[in-house]
User: Which sequence fits this backbone?
């Protein structure tokens, strides 16, 4: 069976779906591996290393011959249309957003596995690409904040006086938020964090952060460790209670996301006005609507406050800024999922396995993921 | 007596020679303090804070009325010519480079104190601006490296496999180098360091770094904790012995400087070829000739290596990137030096004090710093 890896076609995407190490795994498992030339160039994996691992290098992947296509970004409908019926795809599929592609995958009879749908159970941790990529994002956003901050993060006691540590506030304590806490602590900052899920308090503390309790009399833990959306009046009360914490912070990292929904608005423009000039906010959710009013993905915005300006950073695609390690983890996640489904050198999904069934987006002409199937049906009905 | 602080006239210089805190000190000591409007704007100190501290804000400082001029960058000859004879200046004067300005200071009868000349003795630590600004540079260059490095610095043990820590090599273990070691360690990297001064081995270890001993059979400790220049054959041998360490490093920070001389060339282009693609070199000495062949101050250069490219970063003015804290320390250094010379609200230098005498560049029409006096005399002779 042939596994193919293409150079990611989307501009700016630097990751690759397989590294030489995972190619070697596929070869050992009995697959024939085809890699497009320069597929790993932007992430630091040269063609020669893929060749040495046992891959066949090609100028362009012949999609009609592919049995398994490993990919990073959601596939374009045109790419899907070129696959043979029964082909298998494994990668990010953005099931909530890319409904055209999902419909095409089903129509084409492709068996698509979506990394976003891998169940958050311990047996599937090694396949959890949302987690592995969020690790990168959490680390990265602290570096982005630190380089824009006109002060030290650590405490310094010098002959010319003592410099106090920076105060970092992290909003949203999922994987990215916890990693941001850990990285800011490494750099010596004083870190506090808030999450609408009260269950995260212990995790925040274990990373060295101080957990902020807000008197919201509602908890928002949803299944799978994700957060659910707050009612409008609760969200307003949340913002009101957060305001003094926002204004006391030198650096704010926002990481709040709700699966399949726009990012919650945690910070409004009004809340920024009391911040100290020079402060920096990094909005990790800028690409999905933004936790902070006014943030634009990929753009630094100067916001006027009393006595100066603060910098609002809309993070864009943090994983691609560290493409080597991001690809290393992502490729491993994909290889683990493919390995789980491999029997005697052939990809043979066992739909009785909850990981396989959970990760499956389309199979045999149907959309298998129920919420996505409904969204596709609604979209078709609306046409 | 009037102390004046101007907005630094040099493009890109974001620091300021006094903060509201040091203005308050001057006022307490009995000085009248004049601050040019927006002097602290770029470093995050608003006019209102200077006013509250007791300063008089002016649109332009009347240089003819100034008794003491505190400054960051070396003064322009035109500025010096406007000062009254007997005026005192305190700031960086670059005595080895700015000979025109030095001659003008002497000709004009200005009493100039150069922060570069403050003796490195423990009593003068609080006035040591080279040290305080090097602290900034050492911290900063690690952040610059980390944001350009396509991998994590720390070790990560994840469900998708273990990511090894980055290997950081620091060349030159003065204040900046030690701070770079400390910051890279904070971020979880494996750090080794080399300095031609064998005395620095213990300091490197105390920061958590591994000291690299090269078999050079010559030591290069000079007075004041600085390094002296190596003979050409020793320098070549040093490069040869450093090569395997350079090629094993993921990130290299070079900080080697020799007072009054061009920076030593520690790394040649040849030595880079064996480095791993994605590696990053930050040359802190780029503005004084560069420790690394090909580095250009303020520019990132991609250097081709086997299988990809590495990034060579020529650091430029790192202190201005963190102007708030850089100014805080620098202003304190200046205030300590002025405080040492203040008697009953007037600046009254006691030239029997070794700190005052050591820091004095010009006084009473003469260049007091012997090496600079010689350089000025040679320059005049050559005309």
Assistant:
């Amino acid at each position: 069976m042939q596994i193919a890896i293409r150079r990611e076609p989307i501009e700016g995407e630097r990751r690759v779906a397989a590294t030489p190490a995972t190619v070697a795994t596929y070869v050992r498992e009995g697959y024939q591996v085809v890699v497009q030339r320069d597929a790993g160039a932007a992430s630091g994996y040269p063609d020669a290393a893929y060749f040495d691992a046992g891959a066949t290098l090609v100028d362009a992947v012949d999609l009609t011959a592919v049995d398994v296509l490993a990919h990073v970004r959601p596939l374009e409908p045109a790419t899907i249309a070129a696959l043979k019926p029964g082909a298998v795809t494994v990668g990010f599929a953005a099931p909530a957003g890319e409904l055209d592609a999902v419909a095409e995958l089903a129509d084409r009879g492709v068996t698509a596995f979506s990394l976003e749908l891998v169940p958050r159970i311990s047996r599937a941790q090694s396949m959890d690409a949302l987690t592995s990529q969020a690790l990168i994002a959490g680390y990265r956003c602290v570096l982005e904040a630190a380089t824009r901050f006109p002060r030290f993060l650590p405490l310094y006691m010098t002959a010319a006086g003592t410099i106090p540590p920076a105060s970092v506030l992290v909003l949203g304590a999922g994987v990215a938020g916890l990693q941001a806490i850990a990285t800011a602590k490494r750099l010596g900052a004083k870190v506090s964090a808030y999450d609408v899920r009260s269950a995260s308090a212990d995790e925040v503390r274990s990373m060295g952060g101080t957990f902020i309790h807000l008197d919201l009399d509602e908890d928002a833990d949803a299944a799978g460790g994700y957060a659910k959306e707050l009612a409008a009046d609760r969200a307003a009360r949340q913002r009101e209670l957060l305001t003094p914490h926002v204004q006391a912070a030198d650096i704010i990292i926002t990481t709040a996301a709700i699966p399949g929904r726009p990012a919650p608005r945690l910070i409004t423009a009004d809340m920024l006005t009391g911040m100290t000039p020079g402060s920096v906010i990094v909005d990790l959710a800028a690409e999905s609507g933004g936790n902070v009013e006014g943030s634009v993905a990929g753009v630094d915005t100067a916001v006027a406050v009393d006595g100066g300006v603060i910098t609002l950073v809309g993070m864009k695609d943090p994983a691609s800024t560290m493409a080597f390690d991001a690809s290393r983890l992502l490729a491993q996640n994909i290889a683990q999922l493919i390995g789980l489904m491999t029997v005697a050198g052939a990809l043979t999904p066992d739909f009785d396995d909850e990981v396989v069934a959970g990760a499956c987006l389309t199979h045999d002409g149907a959309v298998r993921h129920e919420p996505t199937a409904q969204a596709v049906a609604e979209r078709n009905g609306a046409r």
About this structure: Chain B is about 35% helix and 20% strand. The CA atoms of residues 71 and 91 of chain B lie 5 Å apart.
